[in-house]
Write a structure and sequence with these properties.
This protein is mainly alpha-helical. Helices cover 77% and strands 0% of the residues. The longest helix has 66 residues, at 18-83. The termini are far apart.
Length: 86
């Protein structure tokens, strides 16, 4: 018997079935879209946090201003009541 060896068929990694290429393309597209969406959501969340921080600062300033007005008003009413002569 002759000693015949058959070489195993070599598969080229670059040759993929069209369905596989479509699936890989869809997976990569999904990954890119996911990263893009995550980046946008992160940027939007940071922007909203900054807006809330600014709004909180403004609210605190308004509270201090209101407290100052109440303080001044109470001082004025005390001085006007004390100056009346009966």
């Amino acid at each position: 018997m002759p000693n015949i060896r058959f070489a195993a068929p070599q598969e080229d990694d670059n040759d993929t079935v069209p369905d596989e290429r479509g699936a890989l393309k869809a997976i990569h597209h999904g990954q890119r879209f996911s990263r893009k969406l995550k980046r946008r959501l992160t940027q939007r969340t940071i922007a909203e946090a900054r807006a809330l921080k600014k709004q909180s600062k403004e609210a605190i300033h308004v509270l201090f201003y209101a407290a100052e007005l109440v303080s001044i008003t109470s001082k004025l009413t005390r001085t006007t009541h004390n100056t009346h002569t009966y």
